[in-house]
Amino acid sequence: MRALILLGLVGFAAQLVDGSLGMAYGVTSTTLLLAIGTNAAAASATVHLAEIGTTLASGISHWRFGNVDWKVVAKIGIPGAVGAFAGATFLSSLSTELGAPIMSIILLSLGVYILIRFTAFGLPRGNLGKPLRKRFLAPLGLLAGFVDATGGGGWGPVGTPAILASGRLEPRKVIGSIDASEFLIALAASAGFLIGIGSENIDFGWVGVLLLGGIIAAPIAAWLVRHIPPRILGSAVGGVIVLTNVRTLLRSDWIDANSTVQTIAYITIAVLWAAAITYSVRAYRRDKAAEALEAQSERREATPA
């Protein structure tokens, strides 16, 4: 019962982050499932089956708040589904001993990317309003879908920053469109896993609990995307993912680090993580203060003498 409650809370928290940031539901949930000993393919399959419901709820919520560009959804979602099916088939063919470390490396890489991206740069805002081309979105979707299925998450961490970096779509619509298109990726990946490993290797009770937590969080996240600072949230989530997957790798047969090395690694990561969050908070406050001063200056210029 305690494990199910924990999974429900993880599903809630992961969807709250994903719906607000456009990433990290799969990465966060899969990281936890690996940490408690679930095999790599089963962990990714469990998360993707839950995501069929959570992404549908999230997409509808974002659509109701006007956060979705359906042209972007179509251009990136269909190639993404092809990549996700291929990734699920690939991961299903790997042994458990090989699959877990490989997935942890992918998750760790995504966690480092999220941590650095949001801590150092925040959300880019340039070229707003320019069209997003199919020749950019289709390969991006194919790659993001493959990474998502093999890593148990990655659709958001790959897709969201890439579109944000283009500066052609406002952040809330990037997040809403990525979340809405993820429904197609979840369907395709789930089909690939069911064919590859069969339903007997999946705990549908876990799927249901993750799904329930995510569905509850989806409308809250779609509303929060307009109000919470993504820079701070990105730094916080990135640190969790890095710390957890470093732990998995250090305890794997590949490394098998002793307790002293593990302790030093955890302390180092914790210090860097705290520094990243502190920097993000200060940067956010600095940017808000600059925006307030700019707005005040514009009001003064607009006021007749």
TrEMBL record:
Write out the transmembrane intervals. Answer: 72-91, 98-116, 136-159, 180-198, 204-225, 232-250, 262-281
For this protein's source organism, the top of the classification is: Bacteria, Bacillati, Actinomycetota, Actinomycetes, Streptosporangiales
Q: How is it placed in the membrane, per its record?
A: Multi-pass membrane protein
The answer to whether UniProt assigns keyword Cell membrane to this entry is yes
State the superkingdom: Bacteria
- Answer yes or no on keyword Cell membrane: yes
Question: Where does the protein end up?
Answer: Cell membrane; Membrane
Matching InterPro entries = TM_pro_TauE-like, TSUP/Inactive_protease-like
Q: Which UniProt keywords apply?
A: Cell membrane, Membrane, Transmembrane, Transmembrane helix
Name of this chain's protein = Probable membrane transporter protein
What family is this?
Belongs to the 4-toluene sulfonate uptake permease (TSUP) (TC 2.A.102) family.
